[in-house]
Design goal:
Blueprint (H helix, E strand, L loop, with lengths): L6 H18 L1 H12 L13 E2 L2 E2 L1 H14 L18 H19 L5 E2 H9 L5 H10 L3 E3 L5 E4 L2
Antiparallel strand pairs: 1-2, 3-5, 4-5
Protein name: DUF2087 domain-containing protein
Pfam families: DUF2087 (PF09860)
Organism: Arcanobacterium wilhelmae
């Protein structure tokens, strides 16, 4: 599935992931320590796009930090794209559906039931194929319908 993040946010996440992976790996942690200490002149084979010889691109690292902080912003939803292609595998579709449905209901609290129109409108903020996501959530038992089928609510 494609990331709903824009290219800039994706770049920030990838750069942060490389740094965290280096910290977690003893071999790369040693190299990272050398890079940060300015004692590693050969950075050509390292996955750090912010290290060039003994020079560290602090502007790029500050920009990455600002980008990470932006990903924690409550208005992130206004910056990400909708999911345009839902997974074909049933287990992946149900996992995505569960995540989206619980997010929708957590943000609409304290309401416990939504009409199909309301649920579709809320889901449409996240995903293009609202009907498929809604059906997968019902099939997985995450979402239930009232007997007349007009309203939806979270299964307890």
């Amino acid at each position: 599935m494609n990331s709903p993040l824009n290219a800039s946010d994706t770049s920030v996440v990838k750069r942060a992931r490389v740094v965290l992976a280096a910290i977690a790996n003893p071999k790369f942690r040693h190299k990272l320590t050398q890079v940060l200490a300015g004692t590693c002149a050969d950075t050509a084979n390292l996955p750090f796009d912010w290290a060039h010889g003994e020079q560290i691109d602090t502007k790029l690292l500050r920009s990455t930090l600002a980008g990470l902080e932006g990903l924690l912003d409550e208005h992130l939803i206004t910056r990400v794209e909708r999911i345009s292609i839902v997974p074909a595998r049933e287990d992946e579709l149900q996992a995505l559906s569960a995540q989206l449905i619980t997010t929708v209901f957590s943000r609409i609290a304290p309401r416990t039931k939504l009409s199909e129109t309301e649920l579709n409108a809320a889901l449409a903020m996240f995903v293009s194929d609202v009907a498929n996501v809604r059906r997968a959530a019902v099939d997985a038992g995450i979402l239930q319908r009232t007997p007349d089928g007009r309203e939806y609510y979270l299964a307890l």
